[in-house]
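Readers outside the structure-tokenisation community will struggle with the description of the input data as it stands. What matters is that the chain and its backbone geometry are given together, residue for residue. For illustration, here is how one protein appears when written out as sequence plus structure tokens:

…
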Amino acid sequence: MYLASNMSNLTTTVSCILDITGKNYGQWKSDTKLYLRSKSIVETLVAVNTKTDPEKCEAVIYMRKHLDETLKREYLDVIDPHELWTALLERYGNQKEAMLPKATDDWNNLRFQDFVTVGAYNAALMEIRGVLIYCGRKLTDKEMIEKTLSTFHVSMINVQQQYRLLNISKYNDLLQRLTMAESYNNLLMKISQSRPPGAQALPEANAINFSNSYGRGNNDNANRGRGRDRGQGRGGYRGGYGYRGGRSKRGGRGRGRGGFRNPSHSDTVANNNYQNKDKHKKSEGYCFKCGMKGHWANKCRTAEHLCKLYQESSKGKEKEVNLIEQNPNDDSTYMEATDFTDDYDVRLA
């Protein structure tokens, strides 16, 4: 009972709605039979049966539930499942004869070269094959293999001959080989288009090499050798002596007495040195208020009247440019009387 209930829920979910054109009549017919069989009421479709009225009503309700709205209104007065089933069979029972010509034409015009991927071609082939099987014509593996190989592009004639030499007897084997070849070709094209032929790959830039002034970074070279505050000297944190007169595990031979150094002390020293370096950088700047070197404008203590004098004197002042030409091979000096105008006028007087 539990199994039948689950099957009924499943078929109710996947059953299709019968279209007014009847193009999906075959699928609707198959789904309806499966559902009624799961409920053990498929005998209601037969003219003479021993099913009760509730079972017949259940079959009719299910069939109406999966009909188009127009069809549902047309057969609104039909309450017998056998009568409704027969009426739909007479109306859409000739769908096989109507669908066969179109399916045959689609099969004749199917070409492998018209599709971009192998999957798209296989989907179209399987759809046509399903319609042909429903219409009573079954395609063999030999026909599908010949259809595929004979419709290759002209540029792939060598590939076609190679597949023919394999003597493949099943279409699924051919499909698997074509899919694998397509995957390898896509990978080859991707690698070829990643950079021009002959060009080298760009180096990766995700490695970080950092080392601060106290040898506590990732670079091991900074932690070796002699030194006091770089992790290799006297009592260094990583490179110095752990014991007097011994050799450290990572550093060189030291001369220290410090043993293990507290990391907090190194952090404090690093912070102080960083502040001193920052002060040193600030001392190299010029104050734009007074023009003096050694401090910035936010800490300027020069008198206000002196700052105003400096700003007024520098306002609108152009830079002076002097041109000096020197010729080491020419010792002569050319002078004129106008160069000594004052003395020349005095001597004439």
